[in-house]
Amino acid sequence: MKDFLELAAARQSCRNFADRPVEHDKLVKCVEAARLAPSACNSQPWSFVVVEDPLVVPEVAKTSQVLGINEYVSGARAFIVLLEEHAVLMPRLRAFLDSQYFAKGDLGGALLSLCLEAESLGLGTCILGLYDREKLSALLNIPLETRFAGLVAVGYPADPKTREKTRKPLESLIRFV
Amino acid sequence: MKDFLELAAARQSCRNFADRPVEHDKLVKCVEAARLAPSACNSQPWSFVVVEDPLVVPEVAKTSQVLGINEYVSGARAFIVLLEEHAVLMPRLRAFLDSQYFAKGDLGGALLSLCLEAESLGLGTCILGLYDREKLSALLNIPLETRFAGLVAVGYPADPKTREKTRKPLESLIRFV
């Protein structure tokens, strides 16, 4: 495998998926990487729905085609839904903090871990932030009160070339003390 | 470098730091890995303060020794503070979503990327969730209204052995459709 910085630089949003199915075992490995992510008090406030049924995948794609964005996800061959679960924090913290105080950040880490494992397996991913939660809940039998933490489109990239990353310059973001 | 799943499994909270300084360039690489993390609309809602001054590092450690936890961080040789910055989302989303709607999750990804790069460089990290924000702001000249997204203790691990990870079983977290 590449050096970690190379892997981080290579991972990019895939918006053009190849017409090639994704192996079940690779999807499981992506979730395994997310499962290993750190979380506050090891609370692991997550669960996952892996969508690979070829009849359901296009329906999930449709739920994310809102506001005229995400049209390209119709090419995705699988989706992984990341759900927020209840976090149990250590007793000393429970008196001061809401149980979900750290959950959003922890889920963000799990989501990135999932996408980095996908990249290392040659898969493309796109993290979708907007989707019709009501329709997605109904489609996947997810209780309406469950919070979504992310929807990831997965497939082999049609063009695996790494685009140049657009990022703010390092020196504008960092200060030394 | 290791396979990504191996790297994810090897990264663990370091609570016993060696008496060995951390190279400046390695700290910069950790921030570089965070800078490359994905974010909603590429908003990059983050900035970083790297603390390596041997007179200031112990003072930062003290700010996190609250509620009788985090005593061990007195051994850390550096800290990296992750700050939440304003996120600019694409115009179509601005009408519906608060600018910081995705920021917490994005910052969680940046934080994990930082820790994974540290691991790949042989460094130990511990993500600290609790610290005296007022004292930390004053110590590092951070405006009080700036939101902290994480404080990471950094150093070489005194014992680099990987402990067995305690995680909920994969089959209890995953569902296939």
Give a topology summary.
The structure is a homodimer of 177-residue chains.
Chain A: H1 4-10, H2 24-35, E1 46-51, H3 57-64, E2 78-84, H4 91-94, H5 103-120, E3 124-128, H6 133-140, E4 147-155, E5 174-176
Helix pairs in contact in A: 2-5
Task: Give a verbal description of the structure.
- The structure is a homodimer of 177-residue chains.
- Helix content of chain A is 32%, strand content 17%.
- By secondary structure, chain A is α+β, with helices and mostly antiparallel strands.
- Chain A has one domain: 3-Layer(aba) Sandwich (NADH Oxidase).
- The first copy, chain A, has a four-stranded antiparallel beta sheet, with helices on both faces.
- Chain A is globular and about 50 Å long.
- The two termini of chain A are 34 Å apart.
- At the A-B interface, helix 1, helix 2, strand 1, helix 5 and strand 5 of A face helix 1, helix 2, strand 1, helix 5 and strand 5 of B.
Biggest interface, which chains?
A-B, 70 and 70 residues
Count of helical regions of chain A: 6
CATH topology of chain A: NADH Oxidase
Overall shape of chain A: globular
Radius of gyration of chain A, Cα only, in angstroms? Answer: 17 Å
Task: Specify the CATH homologous superfamily of chain A.
Answer: NADH Oxidase
Structural class of chain A: alpha+beta
Features:
177 residues; alpha+beta; NADH Oxidase; four-stranded antiparallel β-sheet; 6 helices; globular
How would you summarize what this structure contains?
With 177 residues, chain A is an alpha+beta fold. Chain A has helices spanning 4-10, 24-35, 57-64, 91-94, 103-120, 133-140; strands at 46-51, 78-84, 124-128, 147-155, 174-176.
